[in-house]
Amino acid sequence: MKGEAHGVRLHIADLVRAAAGPDASRMTVRRAQVGAVGETTVTCDGRPLAVDGLDEPFERLREMSYREGEGTWFTCELELSADSRGYVCRTDGEEMPFAQVDPLGALGEMTVFHRHEPPGWLVAALPTAAPLSPPASVVSSRLRPPGIPLADWRTVLTHHQPPITGEVSYTPATGMTARAVRLDEQAEPPPGLRYLYLETRPGDPEEERLVVVAFGDEYWLVRHPFGIADGARLDPDEALGEPVRSLTLDKATLRLELPAWAADDLQTETVFEVALDLDAAQMATLRAAVPQVLSQAADPPELIGF
Asked: Which of 81, 162, 164, 172: disulfide with 93, CB 3.0–4.6 Å?
């Protein structure tokens, strides 16, 4: 499973793609920050692009990259394309991010993201007469949970830490090959559970498989071992909807059209194709099983070619 930082990067990417519009091709997002002084630059196909709402997620990424005594990054760059949910993220925790560094920004950086060996440019940017305590403007309001003292907030954060300096890339899957299909309808408690398995290597629990699970009028999608797409939430107002928009059976290909949130949960693109390496009997099973498993769903996907 991907960590919180991955989800934040996807959120940034969604904001940028929404602002870029359907005709965009490639986008680059660069965040430079020292203390509470930050600047975000977005380009779309070589032209500047205005995007709102990026400050908070980038500040959260800085928090998650922090390591005691080592600091966090000063620049973060995301490369995006319009036809993919993927990204390349590069961070740098050494180079000077601005031509001139704000003294209070430098003070805030050293106060909140302390380093045992700060770079020379950061030391040189510190105020010559530091205030007795950091002013409120030195640090972002998001840098610590409410009620947690400044010196202690970092110890309460639990997350997978992305790198201070390095590259992280995400390439969603576009498809898989199914060599077996299996329908399992449970009679034992809880009765009514229905499973449809598409397996790359039958009998091997470690291999990739796609599972449609249905119970009552609900269903969800599992891509083992990568993730589960389930739009239900404890709060009905936060429900995301059903995980599949359409299922198309086109000769030896099963094509799934997914909403963005489901694709992200499954670590796939929004169109995911299953190459069907099945004999005639297995194809007949698939053709009958998909409508059967989804027959009671309150909001089933559109079925095409079944």
From this structure: 164
